[in-house]
Specification:
By secondary structure, the chain is mainly α. The protein contains 12 helices and no strands. α2 crosses α9. The protein is globular and about 55 Å long. The two termini are 37 Å apart.
Length: 243
């Protein structure tokens, strides 16, 4: 019996969603391996929650400029901007007397996420805010993944794979022995910033699939599970990406 168009459409949508989730999962697992080895797991949480105000501001800007608030590249750029700002604020706050690293993480996360919650209310009260569906980004909506989302995830996956491939040894060096990496003449600070940029890109790309609240679990959990198998960083990264 031949398959009708109504049967083909759900199958195509299912493959689209599966492709988007698989691409994001592979990138998140690979990047998460280095984030965990570098002891930056909580920084991933900060970046995820801090992307919310940027997404809301990007939506409002898109509506004001007439380019559409749900424009994918605009939302990603907005989320990445505030996520990077929040991660930059963490070491600055940690230098303040009486704050410390843990306090800096807590302050940055709570401030940016609180700001995002307020802006989300403003978005929903906007004329087209109800149709924006940005509240779905809090917990994700994999079923709503569009072709543009999948193409964005594919582009980020290829870019992240290329960066990890080129800087694999250097990132592994600073992850496991920063002092030794310095003696080798490696630019530790630049490599650390590169890892943060990869983390932010992964977190922002996964908002549609996993949601702002849960995306950090997709970055850290596969890496934690992969470490139980032990072995080289290359093996752990491959296993985490597979998970």
């Amino acid at each position: 019996m031949s398959q009708g168009p109504t049967d083909a459409l759900p199958a195509a949508n299912t493959m689209l969603v599966l492709s988007g989730c698989a691409l994001f999962g592979a990138v998140a697992g690979a990047v998460g391996s280095f984030v965990l080895a570098r002891r930056r797991a909580l920084l991933a949480d900060v970046a995820a929650h801090a992307s919310l105000p940027g997404v809301c501001l990007a939506f409002l800007a898109g509506e004001a400029l007439g380019v559409g608030g749900r424009t994918a590249w605009l939302l990603l750029a907005g989320g990445a901007a505030t996520a990077l700002l929040a991660t930059w604020c963490v070491p600055q706050l940690a230098r303040l007397r009486g704050v410390g690293p843990d306090g800096a993480l807590a302050v940055s996360l709570s401030f940016f996420f609180g700001l995002g919650t307020v802006l989300l209310s403003a978005v929903q009260s906007h004329g087209s805010g109800a149709q924006g569906g940005l509240d779905g980004l809090l917990f994700g909506s994999a079923a709503a993944t569009t072709r543009a989302d999948v193409l964005t995830l594919a582009a980020l996956a290829l870019a992240a794979a290329a960066v990890l491939g080129v800087a694999f040894k250097e990132l592994a060096a600073i992850a496991f022995d920063e002092d030794h990496a310095r003696t080798l003449g490696l630019p530790v600070r630049a490599l650390d910033l590169l890892l943060v940029a990869l983390l932010v890109a992964t977190v922002v790309a996964g908002m549609q699939v996993a949601g702002i609240v849960l995306v950090v679990a997709m970055v850290i959990t596969p890496a934690v599970a992969a470490r139980a198998f032990r072995g080289s960083i290359g093996r752990i990264t491959a296993i985490a990406a597979g998970f």
